[in-house]
Amino acid sequence: MQRKLVNSQLSNWKTYEMYKRQMLTLAENVFEFENLPEYIDTAFLNKKLLRSGSIAFFEDEVLGVIALPYTVVGTLDIYGRPKKIIASAPNGSYRRTLNQGEFVIMYDNNGRYPIYLDILQYAERLAMFQRVMDINIAQQKTPRFWKTKAEKEKSVKDMINNVDGFENIVITYDDIDLDDTTLVMQPAPYISDKVDLNKDKIYNEFLRLIGIANLSFQKKERNIKDEVQAMQGGTIASRFSRYEPRKKAIDMINEKFNLDIKVKYYDGIPSSLKDFEDEENEMEVTENDDAV
Q1: pLDDT (0 to 100) of residue 24
Q2: pLDDT over 60 (residue 283)
Q3: Sign of the C-alpha dihedral, residues 39, 42, 44, 45?
Q4: Is residue 206 within 8 Å of residue 23, measured between CB atoms?
Q5: CA 49/CA 53 separation, integer angstroms
């Protein structure tokens, strides 16, 4: 019994880790940077923005313009921005003190806080729904509890093993009386389809948080145009909250260090209601052409 409990807990943890990896990968890769300095690692940049909420850009005499995490030193200005920071590499091989005017802070969102913990909440909930579905589906198998006479125990086990092995023909002794074998526990009610609907809602909330449009609900015929646009509103707002501080920081970095860095969303989904309407009109024209 204890071993089975450990295996179940391990499955719960592995399911949670699976969703966490997938969701962090999505959240970290919705932006595309062009013309970044050669020494800046894009994956590191995206990871630190998501997990720490901000990162500092500055120019090193040898490495050129680089981006590293930082700690605030001393007081903040009237808007809560750092006047002095210490930028350091995660492995401890690089450390430098910078004063205001020598660095540019890039934030992950306009709230200036990491959404990492929010994503972990969604991953935990998705994992819980998935494990409920796994267990419910497993309980739809042949019931495990049977009541029979002691001398018939082996015969009943052999029959059940044959059923589990998907045998088309089950052979048993001619003196076995199936009327002496009674089912004690019925299979659990099937609820996975209902749980899956709630799971989709949670996943849609996560996509809205990171600014990715969810086309799975946009294409449903029962959603009229105004409803779809209203559902897009939250996604557009979340997208703007993450895109605007990046764009603002890029403009400051380009001006300060004479660069030509560009940033844009990576998925190509419309970023405004006007863009969405234009795409919808194109889809309607395509559908009409196909009908002809």
Answers
A1: 96
A2: no
A3: positive
A4: yes
A5: 5
| Residue range 124-130: mean pLDDT, rounded | 94
Ordered by start, the domain boundaries in the chain are 142-186
pLDDT of residue 122 exceeding 70: yes
Q: Which pLDDT score is estimated for 222?
A: 52
Share of the chain above pLDDT 90, in %: 51
- Listed in sequence order, the residues at least 6 apart from 211 whose beta carbon sits closer than 8 Å to its beta carbon are 30, 235, 236, 238, 239, 240, 241, 242, 243, 265
In this predicted model, what pLDDT tens digit does every residue of 190-229 receive, in sequence order?
889 999 999 999 999 999 999 887 755 444 555 555 555 5
141: which 2 tokens?
């198998």
Both tokens of residue 276? 């969405």
- Of 90, 92, 95, nearest in space to 58 by CA: 95
pLDDT at 37 (0 to 100): 92
Q: What is the b/e burial string over 8-18, where b = at least 16 CB atoms within 10 angstroms of the residue's CB?
A: eeeebeebbee
Distance in angstroms (rounded) separating the CA atoms of residues 84 and 214: 41
